[in-house]
User: Fold this.
Amino acid sequence: MSANTQPTELTIYEGSPSLVPGLGSLLLAILSGGLLLLYFWVQRGGTTYHITTHRIVVESGLFSKKLEQVDLYRVNDFTVERPFSQRVMGTGNLTMTTFDKSTPIVNLVDMRTDVVALYEQCA
Assistant:
């Protein structure tokens, strides 16, 4: 590989948190006649996750947007959380500690993907 050639950046995951992250949330939404889904939608806050082979980008905000970016080489440690209620719904959480001063902890919550496979791709 020549000095001017950069490795291609590939998208590993792109999506937003699940509207109904766990079994308990689903039961509450059903019991409320679906009204709780509006609360869950606002709570998500227009968040989207974009994970590539080089970086993690988290965009959040319904009206005003905030964009956080952490390069993967700055990630120190990964933690995968998949409580039972989330495993049933096919969601999970990925928490990363980083060497980045502005974003020392990155929480990707209620992801609608196999977070274990995602962790293995990022690690």
The chain has one domain: 12-122. The helical segments are 23-31, 35-44, 84-89, 115-122.
